[in-house]
Structure prediction request, 651 residues.
Amino acid sequence: MTPDLECKALTRRFGEFRAVDDVSFAVPAGSFFSILGPSGCGKTTIMRMIAGFLEPTSGDILITGKSVLDVPPNKRAVNMVFQHLALFPMMNIEENIGYGLRRKGMSRAEIARKVDEVLERIGLPGINTRKVDELSGGQKQRVAIARCMVLEPDVLLLDEPLGALDLKLRERMKVELKALQAAFDTTFVYITHDQSEALVMSDQIAVMNEGAFEQVGTAQELYYRPETAFVAGFVGDTNRWTGRIERISGEALDLRTENGMLMRGASHGRALQTGDRAAIYVRPEAIRVAHGAEALEGFDNKMEGTVTSLLFNGAASRVLVRPATGGEEIEVALPQSGEFATTRKGDVLHIGWSGAQGNCFAAGAG
Amino acid sequence: MRAGTKLGFILLLTPLLLWLSLLIIIPHIDMFLVSIRERVDVRQYETSLANYLTFFQEPLYLRTFLRTAVMSVLATLITLLIAFPVSYYIAKIAKGRLQAVLFVLCLIPFYVSELVRTFGWMILLRETGVFSNLLQWAGLADRPVEMLYNDAAIMIGLVYTSMLFMVVPLVTTLESLDDAVVEAGYDLGGNGYSVLREIVIPHATPGIVSGSIVVFMLSLGNYLTPTMLGGKDSLWFTELIYSQFIVRFNWELGAAFGFLLLLLSSLIVWGMLRLTGQTLKETMG
Prediction:
């Protein structure tokens, strides 16, 4: 099956600066594809090239199998939901949604019918004659999507559309966007710097850094099996130690950190040699906490430490533990099952994690 | 505290009230009173509408009046047509330094007085002027060409004088148009024309209307440009008012003319606002 959107060796330079450097990817029809990266990594540049507002320096963009390099933005079967939505403030909702249909020369009656239909689908029937500034943030969001979807594009581009919303609404819109994508059954390409947006909604995520893709995969793959140090550090929170590898046996390896701690990690198929400088990444939620050492028998890495601060944040609460052997504080997720409810600063806790949880990468890259 | 704020309010308002009452309201009341009196004998006056009647009975007055109105509307339209692309370029296409430089270039002609600027046009347009010589040198004319003293010359002068007053409000409103909104217009299938008609112009309407009002008022009340660039056939209504007051010492008729001009401009501005569906409040901000 031809992918809805395909980019081949896409490159865009601004002077000497390579904003997008040899990026290739394909988005299968009907999937939700995210490009995740820090600001300035080139993701907006990719988006603008797909929409047609920017010419690639080299490479090709194919939509449903056909190159669109010579097609101007108003003729591409791609529509875009802008960062600040860019609803037309001079028009009411009906006119906003009907704008693209009017451009197609559709009859008034048909436009009215289609507008009503799409308003029904986004769950906002009857707002036809409302003004744009009379809608709430979430409603504007849905109208902006409806304005594109009514044109039945092959690909819908979304440029960080949730950035301007408050946290609570953003959480709700994530679920809603995913549901809308399923309802319209259209390919969504979503760019964001917010990992949780990408992780929650996407079928496939591309992590982008400095103009190139670091890794493309599902949310689980990126989270559990990051392929590069950048992905390990960018997706999810993580503890990081650098040091020198002392011993390798199969996937497992031992690393002596800079302050002398010996740590068990895993290479997960990456080429590492004894004596290499490397970094180990361990997620706070992969670390087990216990009141006594006996509960952590089966773990490769075990230590005792003092709580230096308690970062209470409901379900996402953390503690910072300073190991008794010295060294940096370790961020550990605090289970909210009740047994650590009385944990205070200064308490002694035992922590441990299995070697497989410690993703090890050659140092220097991250 | 409350008495204090009230006093402050009155003090702050005083200059404005003085300005309004001394320079606008009182003179206009007096003008109106002058305009509705008729001289029956030396220093003998009666209240009557005779002056207004004279205006409607004398075809020259009426025709000059209408001609001035039509020409001013035309000058406003031409100014708008020229200023719009210029403003769009300054506000949306030019970036950084260029933007500032272009804006200053629009402003520079206003550093010299209107009189000098109008003389500049006379130097260019007169029989022995720059354009005439240029045409002869290029072989497009075999004798000196007089381009002054006609309606076209007045129009050029009016448009030139008014340009800045159209560009400033247009640049301001166009600058406030989000680039993404224009891009969205293209992205959803619009071409240059439909984006202009459905997005740019509706957004710029307050600027277009306020610019047009100012330019129209300036053209209608302009005295210098029509007098210097226009010929005997190109009488402007302000010239009639001037001649009644200064040449013929007929203050009564002059005052009546002045009042009619005020009525005319108010009427056309009101009509313009109605036509574009704007209110004065929205336009003046």
